[in-house]
């Protein structure tokens, strides 16, 4: 039986992964579950899935988890601290690693899994955005296998020729007859709102996504469409696509998860109900197909599809991410770091919704042109951009 590590098991993607495992009993064994500090979810899931290891980054939570599991006679070994994430991600017995920690915190353990040559089920797009070419080169050099979980990239992957699926990051899209990647997005909850009213949007309104149920950070990113910007950069690296080969298309129904346009006029699309269990099941079983538990798509209840060109005045964060993608690695790393700080401040009601773009733009201006010759340089740049963003947040929240 293949052994699976789930990084970020207590989150939205982690929980959907466990749902897919429940649909397919006896196919995977859970080697490790990890969380930052969500205790109740970890106690419950460790008792159900009996992983060999459970990691809590927070030490107090780890101690509590160990004592609660012991009281139930569980054999799971509880580890703590960020280093333990890397240890389980690179464990010799692990076959696949679900990389579903949110934000830059996911980079080190995901990289550890890459360097150990695992099958990486990549949900943590921020890690790839932050480290771009370094990440993709490590995948190639260590013989890791990269399967996208992000629904759009999973859709694109499914629409690519099989030869490209084997090493997508180093393909030549044009030579394969591909003219464009069409990256679809719903436009988020404010796609029809009055632009002047966006400044007063509350966190509760921003996280209420019309089609998808997700963690708080990515829900805010979807409302600003920064998420689509991250995905634009993610597609650039995952599929070796030039920025001009990627087009963002707003598709409010979220049924077409993305498309690939070929030079003969064909457009291939992957469709389905908006539920992350589909891409998770695809990547877990690839190249086989397994049940995901997702309801089959009923075209008669969908009725109609529509498509809108994104208005960059409504979505300044999308414009910034596309500009950063053209600028290069330092720009995307700095932008991602600033955005994480800005979204956390917005969720804590310290800054307004439209201030997120202000914080992001300032980071791009300050750090976009810096050199970044190594992964360590990028980690330092991430820290500097975060510090600068915190200063600006301080000013804006006065
Ligand atoms: P959640 O916020 O729901 O879950 C995040 C997970 O990461 C939790 O397990 C959390 O633990 C853990 N975590 C948070 N901070 C740290 C840290 N510093 N160190 C270690 N672990 C940490 O996020 P989502 O599941 O929504 O998203 C996860 C990733 O997947 C993101 O990168 C997102 O962009 C991507 N993604 C998500 C989609 C979705 O539908 N949700 C769709 C496509 C991509 P704890 O619970 O203890 O805080
Ligand atoms: Mg997505």
Automatic annotation (TrEMBL):
Alphabetical UniProt keywords: Isoprene biosynthesis, Magnesium, Manganese, Metal-binding, NADP, Oxidoreductase
Binding site for NADPH: 11-13, 37, 124, 126, 215
All residue ranges annotated as the DXP reductoisomerase C-terminal domain in the record: 271-387
Domain 1-deoxy-D-xylulose 5-phosphate reductoisomerase C-terminal intervals: 146-239
Database matches in HAMAP family: DXP_reductoisom
Pathway assignment: Isoprenoid biosynthesis; isopentenyl diphosphate biosynthesis via DXP pathway; isopentenyl diphosphate from 1-deoxy-D-xylulose 5-phosphate: step 1/6
Lineage, highest ranks first: Bacteria, Pseudomonadati, Pseudomonadota, Gammaproteobacteria, Aeromonadales
Chain positions recorded as 1-deoxy-D-xylulose 5-phosphate binding sites: 125, 151-152, 186, 209, 222, 227-228, 231
1-deoxy-D-xylulose 5-phosphate reductoisomerase N-terminal domain mapped to chain residues: 4-132
Classification via InterPro entries: DXP_reductoisomerase (IPR003821), DXP_reductoisomerase_C (IPR013644), DXP_reductoisomerase_N (IPR013512), DXPR_C (IPR026877), DXPR_C_sf (IPR036169), NAD(P)-bd_dom_sf (IPR036291)
Residues that bind Mn(2+): 150, 152, 231
Molecular function per GO: 1-deoxy-D-xylulose-5-phosphate reductoisomerase activity
Family label: Belongs to the DXR family.
Cofactor: Mg(2+); Mn(2+)
Name of the molecule in the record: 1-deoxy-D-xylulose 5-phosphate reductoisomerase
Organism: Aeromonas bivalvium
Record-linked Pfam families: DXP_redisom_C, DXP_reductoisom, DXPR_C
Signal peptide residues on this chain, from the entry's feature table: none
Enzyme Commission numbers on file: 1.1.1.267
Purpose of the protein: Catalyzes the NADPH-dependent rearrangement and reduction of 1-deoxy-D-xylulose-5-phosphate (DXP) to 2-C-methyl-D-erythritol 4-phosphate (MEP).
Catalytic reaction annotation: 2-C-methyl-D-erythritol 4-phosphate + NADP(+) = 1-deoxy-D-xylulose 5-phosphate + NADPH + H(+)
């Amino acid at each position: 039986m293949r052994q699976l590590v789930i990084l970020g098991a207590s989150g939205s993607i982690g929980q959907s992964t466990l749902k897919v495992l429940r649909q397919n009993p006896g196919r995977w064994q859970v080697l490790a579950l990890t969380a930052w500090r969500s205790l109740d979810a970890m106690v419950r899931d460790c008792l159900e899935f009996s992983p060999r290891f459970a990691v809590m980054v927070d030490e107090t939570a780890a101690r509590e988890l160990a004592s609660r599991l012991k009281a139930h006679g569980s054999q799971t070994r509880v580890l703590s601290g960020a280093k333990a994430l890397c240890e389980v991600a690179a464990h010799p017995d692990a076959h696949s690693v679900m990389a579903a920690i949110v934000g830059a915190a996911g980079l080190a353990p995901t990289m550890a899994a890459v360097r150990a040559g695992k099958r990486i089920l990549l949900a943590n797009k921020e890690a790839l955005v932050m480290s771009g070419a370094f990440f993709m080169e490590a995948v190639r050099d260590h013989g890791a296998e990269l399967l996208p979980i992000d629904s759009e990239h999973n859709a694109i992957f499914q629409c690519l020729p099989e030869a490209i699926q084997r090493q997508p990051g180093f393909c030549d899209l044009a030579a394969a007859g591909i003219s464009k990647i069409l990256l679809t997005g719903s436009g988020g909850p404010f796609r029809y709102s009055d632009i002047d009213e966006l400044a007063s949007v509350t966190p509760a309104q921003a996280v209420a996504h019309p089609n998808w149920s997700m963690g708080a950070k990515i829900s805010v990113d979807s409302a600003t469409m920064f998420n689509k910007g991250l995905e634009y950069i993610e597609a650039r690296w995952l599929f070796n696509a030039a920025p001009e080969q990627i087009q963002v298309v707003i598709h409010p129904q979220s049924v077409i998860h993305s498309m690939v346009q070929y030079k003969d006029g064909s457009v291939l699309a992957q469709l389905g109900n908006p539920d992350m269990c589909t891409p998770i099941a695809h990547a877990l079983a690839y190249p086989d197909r397994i049940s995901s538990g997702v309801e089959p798509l009923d075209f008669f209840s969908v009725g109609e599809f529509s498509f809108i060109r994104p208005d960059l005045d409504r979505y300044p964060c999308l414009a910034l991410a596309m500009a950063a993608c053209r600028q290069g690695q330092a720009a995307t790393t700095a932008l991602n770091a600033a955005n994480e700080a800005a979204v956390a401040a917005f969720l804590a009601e310290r800054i307004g919704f439209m201030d997120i773009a202000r914080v992001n733009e300032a980071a791009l201006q300050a750090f976009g042109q810096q050199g970044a010759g190594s992964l360590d340089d990028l980690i330092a740049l991430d820290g500097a951009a975060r510090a600068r963003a915190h200063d600006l947040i301080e000013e804006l929240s006065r």
